[in-house]
Amino acid sequence: MEVLISAVASDLVSRFLSFLAHKIVSHTCEEDDRRRLEQVLLRMNTVVHEAEGRDITNRGMLLQLKTLSEGVYLGYYMLDRLKVQSLGQESFEGTGSTIKLKSVLESLEAKIADMREFVILLGSCPRLVRQPSSTYIYMDKCMFGRHIEKEQLVNFLLSDDSHDCINISILPVIGPHIIGKTTVVRHACKDERVQDRFSHMFFFKGDDLQNGEFAVMCKAASGKCLFVVDFSLYVDEAGWTNFQSYLQKLPGIAYKIVVIGRAEKIAELGTTQPIRMKFLSQEEYWYYFKSIAFGSMDPDEHPKLASLGMQLATGLYGSFIAANIIGGVLRANPNAKFWYNILLRVREAAPKHRSFSGHTKDILERHFPKFTKLSSVGGQVQGYLVYGLREAVPGQSELPKLSWQELLSGVEAPDEDKFDVVAWRSRIPPYSDYIISFEKQKPRRKAGRMKHLARRKNQHTC
Questions:
Q1: What is the rounded distance in angstroms from the CA atom of residue 85 to the CA atom of residue 410?
Q2: So what's the pLDDT on residue 16?
Q3: For the segment 384-435, what is each residue's pLDDT rounded down to a tens digit?
Q4: Residue 248: exposed, middle, or buried by beta-carbon count in 10 A (0-12, 13-18, 19+)?
Q5: pLDDT grade, residue 357 (50/70/90)?
Q6: pLDDT at 255 (0 to 100)
Q7: I want to staple 313 with a disulfide (CB 3.0 to 4.6 A). Which of 124, 164, 289, 301 is the partner?
Q8: Is the pLDDT reported for residue 374 higher than 60?
C-alpha cells in the first residue's frame, strides 16, 4: 500500500512539475512574442505615418498602405487585449491567446518583409503640406480611418482627362447611411491641391436636381467646376438626366462630378470605378473609440476601464456617431461603475432590436426604434422609445437645448410625452448636427397581454 501511495504521489509531483515548466516556458515565449510585436508595430507605424504625408497617386501603393494600416490597428488591438487579459479582466474566446499572438505576429512580420519595395517607391512621392498639428490633438476633430478613400478622391479630381473622349467624368461614392461619405468628399474638396484646381465648387442634394435650384447657382460658373450631388437614398433618374443635359449646354466650362449615395444604382452613374466605403474593422474601431473615451488618460493605467471600454466598443458595431456620443460621456465620467452602467444599457438594448435589423448601429443610424430608460422628473425611471435619427436642416436657427450625452450622464428627461434632443454635433466638415426623438413608452394594456399569453398556451397544447 505504501508503495502504491508513493508511486501515485511521485506521478502527481512529476505532472505538476511538468505543468509548471510548460507554464513558465509558455509565458516566456509569450513575453518574447509580445516584445517582437511591439518592435514590428513601431516599424510599421513609422512607414504608415511617412506614407500618409506623401502624395501617392498610384492605386497599388494606396492599397498597400491600406493593408499596412489595417495591420497596425490589428497589432495594437492584440496588445491591448493581452494587457487586459493578463490582469484577469477579460479572456479570449476560442483558442489560446498565445496561438493568436503568434498568428498575428507572423502575419505582420510577413507584411514587413514585403514592405521594402513600397518604401523605395515612397521616396519618389512628393511630400504634402500638412495642416497644423493642433488639428490632430483630439480624435473628434479630425477624420479617422478614411485616408485612402480621401486620396482616391483627390487623385480623381486632379487627374487630367482632357485627352479622354468622355465629356463628363463622374466618380460614385457608395456606402451605408452615416458612414462618412460626405465627410470624406468635403475633406478632399478642402485639400489645397483640389482648391487650386477648381474655380468653383457646387454642392447639391438630390432634390435640388428636380426643383432647378442648381441652374440658378451654375449661371455664374466659369472655368473648371466641381459638382457634388448627394442622393440621400434613391436616385432621381429624371432629375439626374435633366442635370446632365443642362451641364452639357454650358459653354466654356470644364467640370467633374462626384455623386454620393447608399443605393448600388449610384455605381451605374459613374464613368470610373466607384469608391465603396465600409464600416471600420473591430480593430480600427477600438483604436478610434479608445482615443475618444480615454482622452488624455493612459488605458494601461486603468485596466478595468480598458476592459469595459473594449466590451463597449464591440457592442457599438462600428458606429461613428455612437462612438462620439458614448465615448464623450465616458471621458467625462472616468469611473468603473459609470462605465459598467453604460455597458449594461448597451447590452440591454441590443437583443430587443435584433427583430428589426440585427445590430445596434442599424437602429442608431437608420429609423428603427430603440428602447432605453432615463431618469424623469421626480427621480423615477421611465422607459422611452428612441427613433428618427436625422440631420438637422443646414442653417436651422433653433436646435434642442438638451443633448443625448446629458441624458446618459443622468440629467432628468423633460416631463413631456415626446421631445427631441441633439444626438451629436460633428466638429469636422461638413459640421452636421444630428437630432433624435424620444417618446415615452406606454404601458401595455392588460387585456392584450392576457390574450397574448392565452395564444402561446394554446400553441403549446396543440
A1: 31
A2: 45
A3: 888 888 888 776 778 899 999 999 888 888 888 899 999 988 888 888 899 9
A4: exposed
A5: very low
A6: 84
A7: 289
A8: yes
The C-alpha angle with vertex 29 and arms to 27 and 33, in degrees rounded to 5, equals: 115
Band of pLDDT at residue 353, cut at 50, 70 and 90: very low
SS (H, E, C) the chain: CHHHHHHHHHHHHHHHHHHHHHHHHHHHHHHHHHHHHHHHHHHHHHHHHHHHCECCCCHHHHHHHHHHHHHHHHHHHHHHHHHHHHCCCCCCCCCCHHHHHHHHHHHHHHHHHCCHHHHHHHCCCCECCCCCHHHHCCHHHCCCCCHHHHHHHHHHHHCCCCCCCCCCEEEEEECCCCCCHHHHHHHHHHCHHHHHHCCEEEEEECCHHHHCHHHHHHCCCCEEEEEEEECCCCCCHHHHHHHHHHHHHCCCEEEEEEEEECCHHHHHHCCCCCEECCCCCHHHHHHHHHHHHHCCCCHHHCHHHHHHHHHHHHHCCCCHHHHHHHHHHHHHCCCHHHHHHHHHHHHHHHHHHCCCCCCHHHHHHCCCCEEEEEECCCCCEEEEEEEEEEECCCCCCCCCCCEHHHHHCCCCCCCCCEEEEEEEECCCCCCCEEEEEEEECCCCCHHHHHHHHHHHHHHHHC
C-alpha cell of 172?
460614385
- Which cell goes with 83? 494587457
**What's the CA gap between 206 and 235, in Å, rounded?**
7
Nearest Cα neighbor of 151 from 123, 176, 166, 171 is 171
Which domains, from first to last, does the chain contain? 2-130 (1.20.1270), 148-276 (3.40.50.300), 282-446 (no CATH)
- Give the Cα separation of 406 and 24 in Å (integer): 49
C-alpha span between 349 and 358 (Å, rounded)? 11
Residue type present at position 307? S
Mean pLDDT of 283-293: 94
Residue keyed to cell 462626384: 258
Per residue in 200-247, pLDDT (tens digit) is 899 988 888 877 667 766 766 677 889 999 997 788 888 898 888 888
State the cell numbers at 39. 518592435
From the list 195, 151, 177, 186, the residue with the least C-alpha distance to 231 is 177
pLDDT reading at 94 higher than 50: no
Number of C-beta neighbours around residue 82 at 10 A: 19
Task: Judge contact between 161 and 169, C-beta under 8 A.
Answer: yes
Strand partners, 259: 172, 229
pTM exceeds 0.85, yes or no: no
